[in-house]
Amino acid sequence: MSTILYIAHTECDGTLSKVALETLSAAKSLADGMDAELAVGLVGADIVAAADSIAACGGTFYGVTGPEFNDGVYSSDLAAIEALAKECAPEIVIGPATSRYSRALPGLAIRLGGRVDTHLSGLEAVDGKPVAKRWFYRQRMEGTLTREERPWVLTLDSGCAVAFDGAGSAEVTVVSVDVSGVRTKSLGMECVSEDQQTIRPDAELLFVTGAGWTKKQADGQVHVDVAEETIKNFLGVTKSSLGSSKSLVDISGEGGAVISFLTHMHQVGQTGSSPRHPKGLATCCHGEEPHVVGWRFIKERRAINTDAGCGWAQGKCDVLYVGDAFEIMKKVNELIG
Ligand SMILES: Cc1cc2nc3c(=O)[nH]c(=O)nc-3n(C[C@H](O)[C@H](O)[C@H](O)COP(=O)(O)OP(=O)(O)OC[C@H]3O[C@@H](n4cnc5c(N)ncnc54)[C@H](O)[C@@H]3O)c2cc1C
Protein backbone atom coordinates (compact mmCIF):
# COMPACT_ATOMS: atom_id res chain seq x y z
CA MET A 1 0.00 0.00 0.00
CA SER A 2 1.38 3.43 -0.89
CA THR A 3 1.75 6.27 1.60
CA ILE A 4 0.66 9.89 1.36
CA LEU A 5 2.77 12.02 3.68
CA TYR A 6 1.12 15.22 4.88
CA ILE A 7 3.59 17.65 6.41
CA ALA A 8 3.01 20.87 8.34
CA HIS A 9 4.91 23.21 10.63
CA THR A 10 3.46 24.87 13.70
CA GLU A 11 2.89 28.62 13.96
CA CYS A 12 4.40 30.99 16.59
CA ASP A 13 1.78 29.86 19.13
CA GLY A 14 2.15 26.12 18.50
CA THR A 15 -1.07 25.77 16.48
CA LEU A 16 -1.51 24.80 12.84
CA SER A 17 -2.47 27.52 10.37
CA LYS A 18 -5.78 27.44 8.49
CA VAL A 19 -4.05 26.55 5.22
CA ALA A 20 -2.28 23.67 7.02
CA LEU A 21 -5.68 22.34 8.19
CA GLU A 22 -7.13 22.76 4.70
CA THR A 23 -4.19 20.86 3.23
CA LEU A 24 -4.79 18.04 5.70
CA SER A 25 -8.39 17.68 4.46
CA ALA A 26 -7.11 17.49 0.87
CA ALA A 27 -4.38 14.98 1.78
CA LYS A 28 -6.82 12.81 3.71
CA SER A 29 -9.39 12.69 0.93
CA LEU A 30 -6.63 11.91 -1.60
CA ALA A 31 -5.37 9.08 0.61
CA ASP A 32 -8.93 7.74 0.94
CA GLY A 33 -9.45 7.95 -2.83
CA MET A 34 -6.16 6.18 -3.56
CA ASP A 35 -6.67 3.62 -0.82
CA ALA A 36 -3.31 4.77 0.57
CA GLU A 37 -1.94 5.13 4.11
CA LEU A 38 -1.98 8.65 5.51
CA ALA A 39 1.16 9.68 7.39
CA VAL A 40 1.26 12.99 9.24
CA GLY A 41 4.61 14.71 9.75
CA LEU A 42 4.71 17.71 12.06
CA VAL A 43 7.63 20.08 12.62
CA GLY A 44 7.94 22.67 15.39
CA ALA A 45 9.36 23.60 18.77
CA ASP A 46 6.55 21.72 20.48
CA ILE A 47 4.10 19.76 18.37
CA VAL A 48 1.96 18.06 21.02
CA ALA A 49 -0.96 20.53 20.87
CA ALA A 50 -0.87 20.62 17.08
CA ALA A 51 -0.87 16.80 16.85
CA ASP A 52 -3.77 16.52 19.30
CA SER A 53 -5.76 19.15 17.37
CA ILE A 54 -5.84 16.87 14.29
CA ALA A 55 -5.59 13.46 15.99
CA ALA A 56 -8.90 12.28 14.49
CA CYS A 57 -7.58 12.36 10.92
CA GLY A 58 -6.66 8.70 11.23
CA GLY A 59 -3.03 9.08 10.09
CA THR A 60 0.17 7.72 11.60
CA PHE A 61 1.93 10.60 13.30
CA TYR A 62 5.63 11.46 13.06
CA GLY A 63 7.25 14.56 14.49
CA VAL A 64 10.48 16.54 14.38
CA THR A 65 10.55 18.73 17.42
CA GLY A 66 12.85 21.07 19.33
CA PRO A 67 13.55 24.82 19.60
CA GLU A 68 15.71 24.75 16.47
CA PHE A 69 12.59 23.89 14.43
CA ASN A 70 10.53 26.83 15.64
CA ASP A 71 11.48 29.31 12.93
CA GLY A 72 11.44 29.06 9.18
CA VAL A 73 15.10 28.44 8.37
CA TYR A 74 15.39 26.73 4.97
CA SER A 75 18.17 24.33 5.93
CA SER A 76 16.59 23.06 9.16
CA ASP A 77 13.11 22.92 7.57
CA LEU A 78 14.51 20.86 4.72
CA ALA A 79 16.46 18.57 7.06
CA ALA A 80 13.28 17.98 9.10
CA ILE A 81 10.99 17.15 6.19
CA GLU A 82 13.66 15.02 4.50
CA ALA A 83 13.95 12.95 7.69
CA LEU A 84 10.15 12.60 7.85
CA ALA A 85 9.97 11.55 4.20
CA LYS A 86 12.75 8.98 4.64
CA GLU A 87 10.92 7.56 7.65
CA CYS A 88 7.81 6.63 5.67
CA ALA A 89 8.93 6.42 2.01
CA PRO A 90 5.85 8.20 0.62
CA GLU A 91 4.55 8.13 -2.91
CA ILE A 92 3.24 11.66 -2.43
CA VAL A 93 4.23 14.46 -0.04
CA ILE A 94 1.70 17.27 0.49
CA GLY A 95 2.32 20.47 2.43
CA PRO A 96 0.59 23.85 2.75
CA ALA A 97 1.85 26.67 0.50
CA THR A 98 3.10 28.72 3.45
CA SER A 99 6.17 30.88 2.89
CA ARG A 100 8.24 28.25 4.77
CA TYR A 101 7.13 25.25 2.77
CA SER A 102 6.96 27.08 -0.55
CA ARG A 103 10.72 27.45 -0.10
CA ALA A 104 11.56 24.08 1.44
CA LEU A 105 9.43 21.61 -0.53
CA PRO A 106 11.08 22.13 -3.93
CA GLY A 107 14.38 21.36 -2.16
CA LEU A 108 12.84 18.19 -0.75
CA ALA A 109 11.85 17.02 -4.24
CA ILE A 110 15.47 17.45 -5.40
CA ARG A 111 16.84 15.54 -2.41
CA LEU A 112 14.40 12.67 -2.88
CA GLY A 113 14.91 12.55 -6.66
CA GLY A 114 11.20 13.31 -7.14
CA ARG A 115 9.21 16.11 -8.76
CA VAL A 116 7.43 19.12 -7.32
CA ASP A 117 4.30 21.07 -8.25
CA THR A 118 3.42 24.13 -6.20
CA HIS A 119 0.41 26.42 -5.66
CA LEU A 120 -2.13 23.72 -6.39
CA SER A 121 -5.82 24.53 -6.09
CA GLY A 122 -7.06 20.97 -5.59
CA LEU A 123 -6.26 17.29 -5.47
CA GLU A 124 -8.35 14.27 -6.30
CA ALA A 125 -8.02 10.58 -6.96
CA VAL A 126 -9.25 9.49 -10.39
CA ASP A 127 -9.36 5.71 -10.83
CA GLY A 128 -7.11 5.45 -7.80
CA LYS A 129 -4.47 7.77 -9.33
CA PRO A 130 -3.58 11.24 -8.01
CA VAL A 131 -4.62 14.23 -10.10
CA ALA A 132 -3.63 17.78 -9.17
CA LYS A 133 -5.40 21.00 -10.15
CA ARG A 134 -3.79 24.37 -10.66
CA TRP A 135 -4.89 27.78 -11.88
CA PHE A 136 -3.22 29.26 -14.94
CA TYR A 137 -3.25 32.69 -16.60
CA ARG A 138 -4.03 34.69 -13.46
CA GLN A 139 -6.67 32.23 -12.30
CA ARG A 140 -8.75 32.32 -15.48
CA MET A 141 -8.18 28.66 -16.37
CA GLU A 142 -7.90 25.65 -14.14
CA GLY A 143 -5.65 22.86 -15.44
CA THR A 144 -5.39 19.28 -14.23
CA LEU A 145 -2.08 17.45 -14.18
CA THR A 146 -0.65 14.04 -13.38
CA ARG A 147 2.92 12.82 -13.16
CA GLU A 148 4.55 9.42 -13.32
CA GLU A 149 7.64 10.39 -11.30
CA ARG A 150 7.67 9.64 -7.59
CA PRO A 151 7.79 10.89 -4.97
CA TRP A 152 5.52 13.69 -6.11
CA VAL A 153 5.87 16.70 -3.81
CA LEU A 154 2.94 19.14 -3.75
CA THR A 155 1.92 22.38 -2.06
CA LEU A 156 -1.71 23.47 -1.78
CA ASP A 157 -2.79 27.14 -1.80
CA SER A 158 -5.06 28.55 0.90
CA GLY A 159 -8.83 28.66 0.49
CA CYS A 160 -9.00 25.56 -1.72
CA ALA A 161 -10.31 22.99 0.79
CA VAL A 162 -12.36 22.89 3.95
CA ALA A 163 -10.18 23.11 7.09
CA PHE A 164 -9.86 19.77 8.91
CA ASP A 165 -11.56 19.65 12.26
CA GLY A 166 -11.09 16.64 14.52
CA ALA A 167 -9.18 16.75 17.79
CA GLY A 168 -8.16 13.86 20.01
CA SER A 169 -5.03 12.42 21.49
CA ALA A 170 -2.26 11.64 19.04
CA GLU A 171 0.59 9.20 19.47
CA VAL A 172 3.61 10.68 17.75
CA THR A 173 6.78 8.84 16.74
CA VAL A 174 9.61 11.32 17.19
CA VAL A 175 12.14 11.41 14.38
CA SER A 176 15.53 12.80 15.34
CA VAL A 177 17.34 15.18 13.02
CA ASP A 178 20.85 16.49 13.46
CA VAL A 179 20.99 20.17 12.54
CA SER A 180 24.31 20.91 14.24
CA GLY A 181 25.80 21.61 10.81
CA VAL A 182 23.23 24.31 10.03
CA ARG A 183 25.05 27.64 10.16
CA THR A 184 22.04 29.96 9.83
CA LYS A 185 20.91 31.03 13.27
CA SER A 186 17.49 32.54 13.76
CA LEU A 187 17.46 35.40 16.26
CA GLY A 188 13.71 35.19 16.78
CA MET A 189 10.45 35.67 15.02
CA GLU A 190 8.44 38.87 15.04
CA CYS A 191 4.83 38.23 14.17
CA VAL A 192 3.00 41.15 12.57
CA SER A 193 0.24 42.54 14.75
CA GLU A 194 -3.30 42.10 13.47
CA ASP A 195 -3.70 45.85 13.11
CA GLN A 196 -0.56 46.33 11.01
CA GLN A 197 -1.44 43.44 8.73
CA THR A 198 -4.46 44.59 6.75
CA ILE A 199 -4.31 41.85 4.08
CA ARG A 200 -6.06 39.00 5.89
CA PRO A 201 -6.74 36.09 3.52
CA ASP A 202 -8.82 34.25 6.14
CA ALA A 203 -11.17 37.18 6.89
CA GLU A 204 -14.94 36.85 6.41
CA LEU A 205 -15.12 40.15 4.55
CA LEU A 206 -13.07 41.85 1.85
CA PHE A 207 -13.39 45.64 2.25
CA VAL A 208 -12.42 47.41 -0.95
CA THR A 209 -11.56 51.09 -1.14
CA GLY A 210 -11.76 53.02 -4.40
CA ALA A 211 -10.42 56.32 -5.66
CA GLY A 212 -13.66 58.08 -4.64
CA TRP A 213 -12.34 58.29 -1.06
CA THR A 214 -9.75 60.82 -2.26
CA LYS A 215 -11.96 62.73 -4.73
CA LYS A 216 -13.67 66.08 -4.13
CA GLN A 217 -16.90 65.51 -2.28
CA ALA A 218 -20.25 67.37 -2.32
CA ASP A 219 -18.72 70.35 -0.42
CA GLY A 220 -16.02 70.74 -3.10
CA GLN A 221 -13.28 69.56 -0.74
CA VAL A 222 -11.26 66.35 -0.37
CA HIS A 223 -11.40 64.58 2.99
CA VAL A 224 -8.61 62.04 2.90
CA ASP A 225 -7.99 62.35 6.64
CA VAL A 226 -11.63 61.47 7.37
CA ALA A 227 -11.44 58.64 4.84
CA GLU A 228 -8.35 57.18 6.55
CA GLU A 229 -9.92 57.34 9.97
CA THR A 230 -13.21 55.82 8.79
CA ILE A 231 -11.53 52.93 6.95
CA LYS A 232 -9.12 52.27 9.82
CA ASN A 233 -11.94 52.20 12.38
CA PHE A 234 -13.96 49.74 10.32
CA LEU A 235 -10.97 47.44 9.77
CA GLY A 236 -9.95 47.66 13.41
CA VAL A 237 -13.33 46.43 14.66
CA THR A 238 -14.24 43.93 11.94
CA LYS A 239 -10.72 42.60 11.12
CA SER A 240 -11.79 42.54 7.50
CA SER A 241 -9.20 42.22 4.77
CA LEU A 242 -8.39 45.46 2.97
CA GLY A 243 -8.38 45.62 -0.81
CA SER A 244 -8.18 48.54 -3.21
CA SER A 245 -8.83 49.57 -6.77
CA LYS A 246 -5.84 50.26 -8.97
CA SER A 247 -6.69 53.95 -9.28
CA LEU A 248 -6.45 54.46 -5.54
CA VAL A 249 -3.11 52.70 -5.05
CA ASP A 250 -1.71 54.48 -8.12
CA ILE A 251 -2.50 57.93 -6.73
CA SER A 252 0.76 58.07 -4.73
CA GLY A 253 2.72 57.97 -8.01
CA GLU A 254 0.57 60.80 -9.36
CA GLY A 255 1.24 63.08 -6.39
CA GLY A 256 -2.36 63.06 -5.08
CA ALA A 257 -3.47 62.81 -1.45
CA VAL A 258 -3.16 59.17 -0.45
CA ILE A 259 -4.54 56.70 2.06
CA SER A 260 -1.28 56.07 3.91
CA PHE A 261 -1.72 52.36 4.67
CA LEU A 262 -2.51 51.27 1.11
CA THR A 263 0.12 49.64 -1.09
CA HIS A 264 0.07 47.92 -4.46
CA MET A 265 -0.17 44.64 -2.52
CA HIS A 266 -3.77 45.64 -1.77
CA GLN A 267 -4.80 45.97 -5.41
CA VAL A 268 -7.60 43.65 -6.45
CA GLY A 269 -8.28 43.00 -10.12
CA GLN A 270 -6.89 42.00 -13.47
CA THR A 271 -3.39 43.22 -12.63
CA GLY A 272 -3.85 42.71 -8.88
CA SER A 273 -5.04 39.84 -6.75
CA SER A 274 -8.14 37.59 -6.79
CA PRO A 275 -8.75 37.01 -3.08
CA ARG A 276 -11.20 34.44 -1.69
CA HIS A 277 -13.62 35.68 0.94
CA PRO A 278 -17.26 34.79 1.67
CA LYS A 279 -18.29 38.46 1.38
CA GLY A 280 -17.05 41.67 -0.21
CA LEU A 281 -17.98 45.33 0.22
CA ALA A 282 -16.70 47.88 -2.31
CA THR A 283 -16.72 51.53 -1.31
CA CYS A 284 -16.11 54.58 -3.52
CA CYS A 285 -15.04 52.20 -6.27
CA HIS A 286 -16.67 52.36 -9.70
CA GLY A 287 -16.72 48.62 -10.37
CA GLU A 288 -15.02 48.60 -13.75
CA GLU A 289 -14.40 45.22 -15.34
CA PRO A 290 -10.59 45.15 -14.81
CA HIS A 291 -11.27 45.62 -11.10
CA VAL A 292 -14.32 43.37 -10.75
CA VAL A 293 -12.55 40.45 -12.46
CA GLY A 294 -10.54 40.16 -9.22
CA TRP A 295 -13.78 39.48 -7.35
CA ARG A 296 -14.52 36.18 -9.04
CA PHE A 297 -14.06 34.16 -5.85
CA ILE A 298 -16.05 36.54 -3.62
CA LYS A 299 -19.36 34.85 -2.95
CA GLU A 300 -21.58 37.75 -1.85
CA ARG A 301 -20.82 41.17 -3.33
CA ARG A 302 -22.04 44.54 -2.12
CA ALA A 303 -21.02 48.06 -3.08
CA ILE A 304 -21.60 51.64 -1.94
CA ASN A 305 -21.54 54.31 -4.61
CA THR A 306 -23.17 57.72 -5.06
CA ASP A 307 -23.70 56.88 -8.73
CA ALA A 308 -26.69 54.60 -9.35
CA GLY A 309 -25.34 53.89 -12.84
CA CYS A 310 -21.85 52.82 -11.72
CA GLY A 311 -20.23 49.59 -12.92
CA TRP A 312 -21.46 47.61 -9.88
CA ALA A 313 -25.04 48.40 -10.92
CA GLN A 314 -24.48 46.58 -14.22
CA GLY A 315 -25.10 43.14 -12.71
CA LYS A 316 -21.74 42.97 -10.96
CA CYS A 317 -22.92 42.97 -7.35
CA ASP A 318 -25.74 41.47 -5.32
CA VAL A 319 -26.62 44.68 -3.46
CA LEU A 320 -25.75 48.27 -4.40
CA TYR A 321 -26.27 50.93 -1.76
CA VAL A 322 -26.65 54.22 -3.62
CA GLY A 323 -25.32 56.76 -1.16
CA ASP A 324 -22.34 58.57 0.26
CA ALA A 325 -19.78 56.08 1.60
CA PHE A 326 -18.42 58.67 4.04
CA GLU A 327 -21.83 58.95 5.69
CA ILE A 328 -22.76 55.27 5.43
CA MET A 329 -19.47 53.99 6.84
CA LYS A 330 -19.58 56.61 9.62
CA LYS A 331 -22.98 55.22 10.63
CA VAL A 332 -21.77 51.62 10.27
CA ASN A 333 -18.78 52.39 12.52
CA GLU A 334 -21.12 53.90 15.13
CA LEU A 335 -23.29 50.78 15.04
CA ILE A 336 -20.45 48.25 15.32
CA GLY A 337 -18.15 50.34 17.52
C1 LIG B 1 -4.94 46.72 -18.53
C2 LIG B 1 -5.64 47.26 -17.33
C3 LIG B 1 -5.56 46.60 -16.12
C4 LIG B 1 -6.20 47.09 -15.00
N1 LIG B 1 -6.12 46.40 -13.82
C5 LIG B 1 -6.81 46.84 -12.76
C6 LIG B 1 -6.79 46.12 -11.52
O1 LIG B 1 -6.12 45.10 -11.38
N2 LIG B 1 -7.52 46.59 -10.50
C7 LIG B 1 -8.26 47.75 -10.59
O2 LIG B 1 -8.89 48.14 -9.61
N3 LIG B 1 -8.28 48.44 -11.73
C8 LIG B 1 -7.57 48.02 -12.80
N4 LIG B 1 -7.59 48.76 -13.94
C9 LIG B 1 -8.21 50.11 -13.89
C10 LIG B 1 -9.72 50.05 -13.97
O3 LIG B 1 -10.12 49.99 -15.32
C11 LIG B 1 -10.30 51.34 -13.35
O4 LIG B 1 -9.68 52.45 -13.90
C12 LIG B 1 -10.14 51.40 -11.83
O5 LIG B 1 -10.58 50.20 -11.24
C13 LIG B 1 -10.99 52.58 -11.32
O6 LIG B 1 -10.78 52.72 -9.95
P1 LIG B 1 -11.90 53.34 -9.02
O7 LIG B 1 -13.20 52.68 -9.28
O8 LIG B 1 -11.39 53.32 -7.62
O9 LIG B 1 -11.89 54.88 -9.44
P2 LIG B 1 -12.92 55.75 -10.25
O10 LIG B 1 -13.19 55.17 -11.57
O11 LIG B 1 -12.38 57.14 -10.18
O12 LIG B 1 -14.27 55.66 -9.42
C14 LIG B 1 -14.47 56.31 -8.21
C15 LIG B 1 -15.88 56.01 -7.79
O13 LIG B 1 -16.09 56.55 -6.50
C16 LIG B 1 -17.44 56.99 -6.44
N5 LIG B 1 -17.53 57.92 -5.33
C17 LIG B 1 -16.95 59.14 -5.18
N6 LIG B 1 -17.24 59.66 -3.98
C18 LIG B 1 -18.08 58.79 -3.37
C19 LIG B 1 -18.72 58.77 -2.10
N7 LIG B 1 -18.60 59.79 -1.23
N8 LIG B 1 -19.45 57.68 -1.79
C20 LIG B 1 -19.61 56.65 -2.65
N9 LIG B 1 -19.02 56.62 -3.86
C21 LIG B 1 -18.26 57.68 -4.21
C22 LIG B 1 -17.72 57.60 -7.80
O14 LIG B 1 -19.09 57.64 -8.08
C23 LIG B 1 -16.96 56.62 -8.70
O15 LIG B 1 -17.81 55.61 -9.15
C24 LIG B 1 -6.95 48.29 -15.08
C25 LIG B 1 -7.04 48.96 -16.31
C26 LIG B 1 -6.39 48.45 -17.41
C27 LIG B 1 -6.50 49.19 -18.71
Automatic annotation (TrEMBL):
Keywords: Electron transport, Transport. SUPFAM superfamilies: Adenine nucleotide alpha hydrolases-like, DHS-like NAD/FAD-binding domain. Gene3D superfamilies: HUPs, TPP-binding domain. InterPro entries: DHS-like_NAD/FAD-binding_dom, ETF_a/b_N, Rossmann-like_a/b/a_fold. Residues 4-184 form the Electron transfer flavoprotein alpha/beta-subunit N-terminal domain. Pfam families: ETF (PF01012). This is Electron transfer flavoprotein alpha/beta-subunit.
